[in-house]
Request: fold
Amino acid sequence: MNMQYIRGMRIHWDRISEESYLRRIPALAGLDTLDFHSGLTCLTGENGTGKSTLLEAIAVASGFNPEGGSQNFLFSTRDTHSELWQAVSLVRGSRRPKDGFFLRAESFYNVASQVDEYDDGAGFLNGYGGRSLHAQSHGESVLALVRSRFRGNGVYLLDEPETGLSPQRQLALLIELIRLEQHGSQIILATHSPILLGAPGAEILSFDDGGIHPTAYEDTESCRVTKAFVNGRESLLAKLFDM
Reply:
């Protein structure tokens, strides 16, 4: 039985113009419906395959700010999100989330600035680790956000959260995501990280090969390339540079 807050989604292509670039993204152009079967879903694939575009559409259709934050974040720095969200219908489960957040690496700075503005000495920062996210390194601020602000029993959408995080920080983030899932949360993230993709029980959806399809961890390009480099660095580099 599917117990997710967001059980799936549907794209109504009649709401998207014929000239839209979205129709030229193979993984998206062939997509009508998509179901989620796990508390933790990883979207992976090469750059430009539509992972972040789809995640953004799910976030905006869920009521989140396109730049990130909770559903109460109303700021706008620059309107750059695609029209896809207007064509997305979400299939919601019987449960209702008690919390939620949209984290995207490319606009995290803007979210951190908005947290400071919302605080204004009123204690708002207490929910974000007690100090400005700008006063911490990127890795520290992301972990502070997840540990302090993500309360569980919620929907958390993360777009490449590993950006700027060391392998150790990625492992720490992985632990937090597993903890959140165990506390009744649903997490959907777009990632290239072989560490985050290794979350036990995660459903991995690949955007490669012109479509969206489930794949095993060992078959992801991130895992295969990383494994090939670690296990045969010298021979791989020799082939790449004709050394």
About this structure: The two ends are 54 Å apart (CA to CA).
